[in-house]
Structures are given as structure tokens and as C-alpha cells.
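S1.2 Input.
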Amino acid sequence: MEPRKIAVNRRARHEYFIEETFEAGMVLTGTEVKSLRHGKGSLNECYAGINQAEVFLYNCHISPYEAGNRFNHEPLRPRKLLLHKGEIKRLIGKTREKGMTLVPLALYFDRNNRVKVELALARGKKLYDKRRELARRDAEREMERAVRNKQR
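S1.3 Output.
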């Protein structure tokens, strides 16, 4: 069964070279999960950081639940991510390297209906890398168009 996507960070693949991906669970409150079931989550301007051997997701916006009462959650609070200790140690070592960062790629429900985050260990692209990628995609699109027109 395909996992149900809540939010996708489309800019991440444009802004970064993705080296490695991880799946992490999230520590959430009840109203946050209910809000995510309605698709009210966003990964824009979101990033992950390591603080005292724990991984947190910062600036991840989850809208308050409409039917929530005074126990509703704060939309931009830091959220703890659940990873194995060995993975966290490896991430600490990798993020200390120059230019490496943790970027969330997607927020989704897995087959057990748990909220998961697809985290990427990434290196930032320079402007010329982005231009080269756009030129390559345009060239591929032109070749496909030429092949399609040739077959007619």
C-alpha cells in the first residue's frame, strides 16, 4: 500500500544534492495528528537540527485543529524526531562536515497510520549547479518532443 503523503518539500531537490535519506517518526500531540489527517501540514522553510543527541524538526507548520479546545497545539513548535541511536550518531558526524545539512523531503502516513518524515542528508547546490540542472531538463524535454514529432 502506497503511503499517504501529507506534505512534500518540492524545493529541497532543487536546492540540494540528496546524499542519503532516512525515515523518522515524529512525537506529536493528538490535535496535531487530527490536523495532519485533514492535510493541514506544510514543510516550507522547514529544517531539521541535532540538539543534545536528539533530532528536532523546526519551522514545520501544522495548523491548529478546528475542533480543538484549549489543549490545541502551537503551530510552529519544534517537534522531536525518532531515530535509532546509531543513525543519530552517524548524522552528527555527517552534519559536522562542511556543507552537509538535514532537510525534510516529505511528511506522510505509513501503512500503520503513523506520521513519518523522510529526512535527507544533503549538500547545498550552487547557482551554477541549479542552472545546469535546468538546462539538462530542458534539453531532455526538447529531445522527447522531437522524438514525438518524428513519430507522427
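S1.4 Remarks. Strands lie at 4-8, 16-26, 41-42, 47-51, 54-58, 61-62, 79-82, 100-109, 115-124.
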